């Protein structure tokens, strides 16, 4: 499954606001890149993801997003990708900031976003960020990569079966900020998913 660009938000997608006030995912100013819309209320960081309508043949797949090049001021706002169920109530994501801050793997259970592992890393426009599962002795380990190379320290083994393999839908992920104005990410220029 591949989206080489995003001239529209794919029909049948589901917006999931991780925290109250997070806006929907829209097409950015270049007409080809997904980006989060302005928040609807509140101040601080706002997190949202888009459950794509495409369904993978199994729940064991990797998702790769390409960091967009929309013009924004530097910050620790982040983009990434993940795997989720159709309802967006069970998911895992990698998120990498665009200028400074911490990259992380996080899980979502429909009410709580939990940080599973964090490292210092950034991604610039054109970088490809991947999250992929592997399974050994019934334990799923999620590994994050940048441009095909594992990001040092950014892997999480689900040894207590908190999540396992959450579903068959790929999802782009966004974190933006509001403080006397909305501060957006560079967006996601492309997305692909492959069975592993």
CATH-defined architecture: Sandwich
CATH superfamily: Exo-inulinase, domain 1
Structural class estimated from helices and strands? mainly beta
Percent helix, as a range, is under 10%
Q: Which shape, going by the Cα principal axes?
A: globular
Helix-strand pattern, N to C?
EEEEEEEEEEEEEEEE
Rg result = 15 Å
State which percent range the strand residues make up.
over 45%
Largest sheet: 8 strands, antiparallel
Descriptive report:
This protein is mainly beta. It has one domain: Exo-inulinase, domain 1 (Jelly Rolls, Sandwich), CATH 2.60.120.560. 0% of the residues lie in helices and 52% in strands. The chain has no helices and 16 strands. The strands form three sheets. Strands 2, 5, 7, 8, 9, 10, 14 and 15 form an eight-stranded antiparallel β-sheet that branches. Strands 1-16-6-11-12-13 form a six-stranded antiparallel β-sheet, with no helix packed on it. A two-stranded antiparallel ribbon has the order 3-4. Strand 12 and strand 13 form a beta hairpin. It is globular.
Short account of what is shown:
The chain has 196 residues and is mainly beta. Helix content is 0%, strand content 52%. The chain has a single domain, classed as Exo-inulinase, domain 1 (Jelly Rolls), CATH 2.60.120.560.
Secondary structure: elements and pairs:
Blueprint: E1 2-3, E2 14-17, E3 25-27, E4 34-36, E5 44-51, E6 61-67, E7 78-84, E8 91-97, E9 102-108, E10 113-120, E11 128-136, E12 139-146, E13 149-157, E14 169-178, E15 182-183, E16 188-195
Antiparallel strand pairs: 1-16, 2-5, 3-4, 5-14, 6-11, 6-16, 7-8, 7-14, 8-9, 9-10, 11-12, 12-13, 14-15
């Amino acid at each position: 499954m591949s989206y080489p660009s995003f001239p529209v938000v794919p029909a049948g997608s589901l917006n999931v606001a991780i925290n109250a006030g997070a806006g929907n995912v829209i097409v950015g100013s270049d007409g080809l890149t997904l980006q989060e819309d302005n928040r609807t209320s509140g101040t601080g960081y706002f997190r949202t993801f888009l459950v794509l309508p495409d369904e993978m043949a199994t729940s064991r797949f990797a998702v790769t997003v390409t960091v967009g090049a929309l013009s924004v001021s530097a910050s620790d706002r982040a983009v990434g990708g993940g795997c989720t169920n159709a309802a967006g109530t069970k998911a895992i994501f990698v998120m990498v900031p665009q200028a400074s801050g911490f990259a992380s793997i996080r899980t979502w259970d429909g009410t709580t976003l939990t940080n599973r592992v964090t490292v210092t890393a950034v991604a610039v426009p054109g970088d490809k960020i991947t999250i992929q599962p592997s399974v050994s002795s019934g334990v799923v380990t999620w590994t994050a990569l940048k441009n095909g190379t594992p990001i040092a320290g950014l892997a999480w083994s689900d040894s207590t079966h908190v999540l396992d393999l959450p579903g068959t839908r790929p999802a782009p992920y966004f974190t933006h900020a509001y403080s006397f104005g909305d501060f957006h990410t560079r967006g996601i220029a492309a997305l692909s998913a492959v069975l592993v």
